[in-house]
Amino acid sequence: xxxxxxxxxxxxxxxxxxxxxxxxxxxxxxxxxxxxxxxxxxxxxxxxxxxxxxxxxxxxxxxxxxxxxxxxxxxxxxxxxxxxxxxxxxxxxxxxxxxxxxxxxxxxxxxxxxxxx
DNA sequence: CATCGAACCAACC
DNA sequence: GGTTGGTTCGATG
Length: 117
Hints:
This protein is of the alpha+beta class. It is 34% helix and 14% strand. It has helices at residues 18-29, 40-47, 51-59, 86-96, and strands at 2-7, 10-15, 38-39, 72-73. The chain binds a DNA duplex through residues 15, 18, 21, 39-41, 44, 49-56, 58-59, 69, 72-76, 79-83, 87, 90.
């Protein structure tokens, strides 16, 4: 992720700090509607960063309430992780919101949304 | 469709 | 510099 700024009439660019990246990830994740999910890669592409980095930001997420990181799953519909609480709890949250799973335990395609900036 | 392996890239040590 | 991670993608049966 790149940050552009204007200094004395010149455009400069630098790599975003980890704090900036996390903030961007959190903002995007909090726009996922209730009862919907998106993938790590989807967020990563929107920001121009690596999917593993998205996961890393979410793992550091202290505000499980305000940032619905349980709505971010693998692109193939499998759950991915959820810190100590585990994927089982993550699935419970999603089911509570009305998300449906197939017989293999993967999120049904229809519940994926595209994140756009 | 399922499984497998490599590629991905920044953080962290 | 090597290891790790809440991934992804393509190749293969």
